[in-house]
Write a structure and sequence with these properties.
- There is one protein chain.
- Strands 2, 4, 5, 6, 9, 10 and 11 form a 7-stranded mixed β-sheet that branches.
- This protein has strands at 3-7, 10-12, 18-25, 32-39, 45-51, 57-59, 67-72, 77-82, 91-100, 105-109, 113-117.
- The N and C termini lie far apart (40 Å).
- Helices cover 0% and strands 55% of the residues.
- The chain is globular, with a radius of gyration of 14 Å.
- By secondary structure, it is mainly β.
């Protein structure tokens, strides 16, 4: 069983920055693809950014140029650096870890960390 834990959320003013961390334990971290999602007030869950086992990053349009995702296999962590934050970035940010083999796929989710962008 893989346990996922997010941290780093908080209250920040527009234009500010936050660095979120996702730590996964209980498996071989280097073979996990990792994604960050968010769920805003009254909105559905949407993908923000993801990173593959080969360290290839993917970003939604709204995150391009402002957010950066990176993985640190040595300490089982993926970080999401968020700059120039806007009020519409407010939401619960969740990390998901995918453990995939030829035969099976397992997705594990954390409980999320709240990001609030407000003046």
């Amino acid at each position: 069983q893989v346990h996922v834990l997010e941290s780093g959320g908080g209250l920040v003013q527009p234009g500010g920055s936050l660095r979120l961390s996702c730590t996964a334990s209980g498996g071989e971290f280097g073979r996990f693809a990792v994604g960050w999602y968010r769920q805003g007030p009254g909105t559905g869950r949407e993908l923000v950014a993801g990173i593959s086992t080969a360290n290839n990053a993917y970003y939604r349009d709204f995150a391009l140029g402002r957010f950066g995702i990176s993985r640190h296999n040595d300490n089982n962590t993926v970080s999401l650096q968020m700059n120039n934050l806007k009020p519409e970035d407010t939401g619960l940010y969740l990390c998901t870890v995918r453990d995939a083999t030829i035969e099976t796929v397992h997705d594990y989710w954390g409980q999320g960390t709240q990001v609030t962008v407000s003046s």
